[in-house]
Amino acid sequence: MIDNKPLEEEAENFIKSKLLRYGFNLAKPSFDIKGADLIVLDNIDSQYSKILKIQSKGRTLKKTSNSIKIHESYVKDDFIVFLYAIDEEDKEKDYLFVFFKEDIKSWNKTNDNYVLSFTSNSILKDQFQCKLFSKSVVERITKTLEKVEVKKYTSVVVDGHFLERTIDETFKLYSGLYPEKGLQVPSVEDVIMNITTMYNRFESEENVLNFHIYNYNENTDGSKVVAGNIVVSNDMENRIYFHETNGFVFQDIEEYFIKVLNLENIIFVADDVIYEPILHSLESKNVDVILVMHSETGGNNMFTGYRWGAIYYPIAQAMGLGRYEW
Q: Domain of life, per the record (predicted)?
């Protein structure tokens, strides 16, 4: 099997260089936005930005047929496909084609995917040549960006050590108060579902929440996502990613926050003074954050201008306790 990854990376870098040359604001999404390898933003200083989702494709042109496919759910007004193609016989020949929603919908449809087939000969025909990256394409990208609506996404970022420790402490507290109930330690997933039910005050695009749970693991090589899961609850699609690192968890979370775009709302589950500098930085960038932490009477450690909610309540609810038993 041919490894397309080097060419895909070359394609993305080539596309970035072209768009940056024309003054577009680009970013790599820090969370899952349907089909997006890159994001074009209209105003990086606004609290919320209009965005275009860019999917980049890299292919080697052959005399035999090659193809790309795009899932139909991605194809909206704010979605653009860039195809970077290199001639198999002459590596100095490369092409950059750009396809907007109307173009993609004219491709062949196979099940839930739009499919574009091409060869080294067919790309020389007018139907492809008119899609080559050019100044007129740049103008169309600009107009498309101006027309799209502002979309807001919500991510839940969790310091896993803090959450697990607090779950244990809360379980011991309420087990002592209600020994007759035979309470069980709740799962992390159940607790974070309750956190969003109680404290999520954001409107999210397409009813999607992205969860990032960070933990330390000395056996992990560097930092990586070790598992992912999707839980559908109350028509909300919850995408849960478990991150592990053999370094400092706060550094991985800080790196995530540095990449946060001004189209993302954050629910942050943590309570450590070490996070204060990056939270103040997010405030200066107009990123909206809700903190889930210890209460003032419970000895909270973070002091910012952000709204916050107490961590104990969603844990107690996950153990099966009623509102007046917390």
A: Bacteria
